[in-house]
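Still learning. Any example?
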Amino acid sequence: MKRIYADESIDQANLDYAETRKKSDEFQQKRILVVDDEQDLCEILLYNLRAAGYVTEAAYSAEMAMMKEPSQYDLLILDVMMPGMSGFELAEKLKTETQTSKLPIIFLTAKDTEDDTLEGFGLGADDYVTKPFSVREVVARVKAVLARSQSVTKKESQITFEGLVLDLVKKTTTVDGENVNLTKTEFVLLGLLLKHRGQVFSRQQIFDAVWPEDVVVSDRTVDVNITRMRKKIGRYGSCVVSRQGFGYVFER
């Protein structure tokens, strides 16, 4: 028997194309994948989420979702009880893979016991909604989860220490507000030390983290790049300390 969901009027969700594109631009084309074996439910969610301005697609099984490359999406709305691979199994798989380990997930499910909810959150879910539900509530929760995710992503896009800032997205470095031109090698090297302040890295560890495997470098190469990078970051150069016989560390 087909479920009836509260306040689900597809006509209300069917906004004109121009309005949808305008809202989509405001949300910076956030992409959402709805994974549920109930195709009628997927259609309702697709209409409402597109009306809210999101680029939304559907997959009718966990296996189909994997074929769509989940890493290209900003959020998954995931049913738990599906034929074949369950939603919990898919979430567990995604959380163990580097490209999707931080992908936000909202579970939609008829399983509403406390143990089920705890299992979902234990797998890294960002929210958990039980059926039947209000689509308006789902859209509101989607907005909230994406807002939290965007805030976290923004923080993770920079590595900072006092007035020293490395922007990992723009690939820029600033010292007390002034731009500093680092080479790619110097940027990666500084990022490694700055992100792991207080940890001593041997030259071999620096080789492995900074240079490609097919490039042969000597100890002297590391030392030269360290010296040049120290000069460029001004007063923070003294924070890059050599531990004789061990390697380099960034510390105050």
Remarks:
- Confidence is low (pLDDT under 50) at residues 1-27.
- The longest strand covers residues 31-35.
- The chain has two domains: 10-155, 158-250.
